[in-house]
Amino acid sequence: MMTQQFPEDFLWGAASAAYQIEGAATTDGKGPSIWDTFVQQPGKTKNGTTGELAVDHYHRFHEDVALMAQAGLKAYRFSIAWSRILPDGEGVVNQAGIQFYSDLIDDLLQHGIQPVVTLYHWDLPQALQDRYNGWESRALIPLFERYCHILFEAFGDRVTYWVTFNEQNVFTSLGYRWASHPPNVSNVKRMYAANHVINLANATAINLFHKLVPNGSIGPSFGYGYVAPESAHPLDILAAHDANQLNNDWWLDVYCRGQYPQKILTLLQQLNLAFDITDADQALLKSAKPDFIGINYYHGGTVKRPAVNQQPTADKSFTKIDPYLMAADTQDDSLESHLFQSVSNPYLEKTEWGWEIDPIGFQIALRTVYERYQLPIFVTENGLGAFDTLTADRQINDDYRINYLNDHLLQLQAAIAAGVPVIGYCAWSFTDLLSWLNGYSKRYGFVYIDRDDHDAKQLTRIPKKSFYWYQNVIQNNGESL
Ligand code: BG6
Questions:
Q1: Angle at the Cα of 222 from the Cα atoms of 194 and 381, rounded to 5 degrees
Q2: Is 371 a catalytic residue?
Q3: ipTM above 0.85?
């Protein structure tokens, strides 16, 4: 392994999202989001868990920031709940919402921690879903722009790093295709149409930001997974190439180059899944360029050639869900089935939730993205979901998490040595939090939260073994890895 120092100003951080930690779902004027509503439907989440209380970060953020300072974090990524700022998504601003995030930002800065603000981490105001049909309507673009305008004006003097959309690839496919997230839709054509509107909103926000906060940096956070071929057979290599184009370039090319990959566009047309792209849309997408690319990395994928060389036909039903990659089932008639089939990689171990563990894939991901787009990279998420055990003497010995993070950071270091400019690394997550569909037992944090799906208990914060490990890594700027 090549060794290379981490840059002196490397942003060692951790991340979270509003719905997963804040709680206070109706406190101080907050309006409902699509997640507040979605989780009320029976059977949607594990044990019916919701973010109504979550880990009550809203009332305990001083305690959480003190722990971040104790860990030595240089950056903390969190998201803003749109419906805390604008309860209806539009109209009157809720000053209490602005105040909450303002206090959080001040507290972080006082502890020498850079706030990294995500504008949208999946919790669309319910009012915008009801009134406009959410992201399927272009009406959302100026509304998102106004919401961003309010935040850039309120916090642009104190916050340098901003993330536009968190994992657009994940929330559009889970929300509009697999119906496992709100708005609970299962329609591929509508997914592609909504995705295009979000691309336009992303470009609009970036352009506005560059006008209002010229010294700041903004970019989307993308859920990236490098796709490898199952074998050296040229058809498998071609399948992997196509899978990378469909799963990764489809979004990153638009963010960074302002254009969609042609092959996929053509295929969408053949399958009657195409959406409208006007000349003005094209000009807008071309005009906006992010300052960095946020990469969330959990795992990649492996594919082989499609089962049959099918002629494209209109899209039908979808049966298989890979929540992270838009992976294909073997026999369905989906877009993917014309390009590849997903297979499991026999060389990789899996987490208890079946996610492959592939630190080398992390290095490949970072290098591929940089080599393709030449933009700095901010790792905005990476981490291990696991069942943790609280021992009788109230310890959490999460060596598995330490190993996971250590292995990934070594690969990140190798990517830096290979010339990739990496701004920082936000582990997912700082405290344990609500794992959208998996309740509170799939834990990611450096800090254990003493609650479970059925009993919120006292929500006591207990630093895990990994907390002290990370504290040490940060202290010596990665030399102990
Ligand atoms: C990312 C999201 O997709 O993965 C996070 O940005 C999420 O919000 C994380 O929690 C882990 O996913 P999960 O389903 O294990 O909670």
A1: 135
A2: no
A3: yes
